[in-house]
Amino acid sequence: MIPGAFAYHRPASLSDAVALLARLGEEARPLAGGHSLIPMMKLRLATPQALVDLAAIEELRGIRRDGDAMVIGATTTMAELIGSAELAAAIPILRETALVIADPQVRARGTIGGNVANGDPGNDMPALMLCLGARYTAIGPAGMRELPARDFYQGAYLTALHPAEMLTAITIPVPPAGHGWAYEKLKRKIGDYATAAAAVVLTMKDGRVAQVAIGLTNVGDTPLFAKAAAAILAGSTLDAPTVDRAVAAAEAITSPASDGRGPAEYRTRMAGIMLRRALTRAASRAR
Ligand SMILES: Cc1cc2nc3c(=O)[nH]c(=O)nc-3n(C[C@H](O)[C@H](O)[C@H](O)COP(=O)(O)OP(=O)(O)OC[C@H]3O[C@@H](n4cnc5c(N)ncnc54)[C@H](O)[C@@H]3O)c2cc1C
To answer: Could you read off the pLDDT of 209-250 as tens digits, one per residue?
Structure first.
């Protein structure tokens, strides 16, 4: 329960953090809220030689509107996200999801950047980012680049980030006015990671699905973007046979582990049930 020795750095500016990460190389890791990294270090599952704490870098914080998108600084905490009225109005699924992550203490420290960069399939925000078509801004020794969330997740704890790169912001296109949304998460107890969870963002026109995107949490090595399931639902009235086919398509792309949250078959079925509930609730909210 005691981490190995490490050097601690607390740069005051983004340029200092980038320079530090470049100089320290692969043995260094950014530290945000620390609520995933520090437990991993205590278990010696992560053994970085140096931590670059991002907490003092003002330019990484905050939530702002930029045209048709919301831009969220990487070290914005879950609590700040929950407290933003502007974000709740523009992209309400973010608040709904943040509220079912862990507990108030963890949400007071845990950041959106840490949640999406961690690469743990149990993190809840990445499935939303797939649904919403988010882009991540990364900075590193080679400069700045934009990474679509849909191309970011490559395996458990494996992302498209290069060594010495870090995320500075998450840009999320604002869904159309009147869209429906829902995040349904099955967990064993308050504060738990998902046994299975489903995110749905949709628009309806004349009683039919105009657009729909579906993301699944913790039922594979990465968050899953259920493209085939969404294609089945497009144009439908969400009638029972069509929903059954879409749920089957979503379940087919899952490959959860059998673990303390249940056997793989159970978790796959729960993903399907979470998707059914999310579709019903999202449709009921669409105008
Ligand atoms: C009891 C408990 C329950 C939890 N339950 C849930 C849950 O239900 N759902 C959920 O989603 N999460 C859960 N978490 C995790 C929590 O939300 C974490 O805070 C979050 O996953 C990581 O955010 P962080 O800011 O703490 O990141 P850190 O722990 O500081 O970092 C996590 C990883 O991301 C990297 N990183 C951090 N910031 C950046 C950046 N800007 N650029 C590049 N890399 C970066 C770090 O180097 C590290 O590898 C739980 C945690 C605890 C302790």
So the answer is: 999 999 999 999 999 999 999 999 999 999 999 999 999 999
Does the pLDDT value for residue 1 go beyond 80? no
If you take atom 41 of ligand 1, which residue's CA is the nearest one?
Answer: 167
CA distances to 8, 30, 59, 94, 248 from 15, rounded to whole Å, are 17, 14, 10, 29, 48
Domains of the chain: 7-53 (3.30.43.10), 58-173 (3.30.465.10), 180-285 (3.30.390.50)
Collect contacts of 42-49 with beta carbons under 8 A, ≥24 apart.
Answer: 42/1, 42/2, 42/3, 43/1, 44/3, 44/4, 47/3, 47/4, 48/6, 49/6, 49/7, 49/24
What are 180-216's pLDDT values in tens digits? 999 999 999 988 999 999 999 999 999 999 999 999 9
The one-letter amino acid code at 108 reads: A
How far apart (Å, rounded) are the C-alpha atoms in residues 272 and 246?
9
Residues lining ligand 1, Cβ inside 6 A: 29-37, 39, 54, 74, 101-102, 106, 110-111, 113-115, 117-118, 123-124, 166-167, 191, 193
- CA–centroid distance, residue 114 to ligand 1 (Å): 4
DSSP 46: -
Residue for token digits 């079912």? Answer: 100
pTM of the shown model: 0.97
